[in-house]
Amino acid sequence: MWEWLTEWFRRKSNMYWIKTDTILLNYLSMIDVRARWLRSREAGFDQAEKDILDEAIKRRSELENSAPGIYTDAAAWTEVYRLERLMALLEPSQNLLGEIRLRLDEALAERVSAEPRLRAALAIAEANAFDRSKTPPELKPGEEPALRALLLEILEETHWTNQRKFYARPIQKAATRRIVWAGLLSFVLFMLPYVWIYIDIYIHDTATVRDVPGELLIGLPFYTALTAGLFGAYFSRLLYIQKYAGSMSVGELKTAREFTSIFLRGVVGMCGALVVFFFLRSGIVEGSLFPEFAALNVREGKVPLFDVGSGRDVSVRQILPSQALALLAIWCFLAGFSERLVPSILSSTEQTLGNAAKGTKK
């Protein structure tokens, strides 16, 4: 009964308990087996090494049997990683090279950024630590500390990477959630005037596009450009977070989570869309891929259908943005989405104007 009440209270208070962490318990069991194996060989240990082994065994037992709420999950994993590094201090010298290679493969699987550097350090340490004139090669006297230090560094880098992932995951989730909401809001803003037009015409059966308030249609192209750039900026940011969160530092993730950073990213997207809007309006470039500003409107058409029951042709009203307005929305979305589009446009324009100025001087 007491255990049931304890478990119920722990769940209600969201209290961490090691006994319910399956992965951590498995890690502790591996440390327990390693400690028992080292205990069977402690005859060759000096007093300092025996003290390290005793401390590791004692702390492992205290950790596993700790009461709910004594440790947070982060603190528990930090202690487990410390115990694993203590075990590395007791690794027999003849096993060091194999253990280092095994841990390097683990670091590669965990995508530790320092893995190439550590592997290069192993090649140098292996060349200096072994006497190749003997068969099989023997570890030179005094070279064991260098290999053990390398093993500890590999473990530290791997543990840091794992702890960073654990710490960064809630930050990434918060940043993703806020960017998704910002993107959803920008999408609603983008669709708002078109939904208004559809609802207004739907309510008034006899209404047409000509009956839509002129004030709405006058500002529609400019509004579409800004909101398309805003939506493109947040869409780009969301994809970036999802793709590169694993390689971003904790500081970068915290910055991405801040409302100020999210707001500024949207402002930058709208500024890029504004630049593209005026660039297209200037008429510097022309062609089928660029909108004609005289045709920026909403058009009404009819879709022909065939009524099987009556055997006669019928049609359905269709209200869509014009091709020019759709092209403008696409260009402005790309301006907000791509960080290189606006700089490349400005660079090419600068080069064109520079060439024109040189031609005038000649």
From TrEMBL:
Protein name: Uncharacterized protein
Protein keywords: Membrane, Transmembrane, Transmembrane helix
Highest taxon of source: Bacteria
Transmembrane segments: 179-199, 219-241, 262-280
Source species of the chain: Rhizobium meliloti
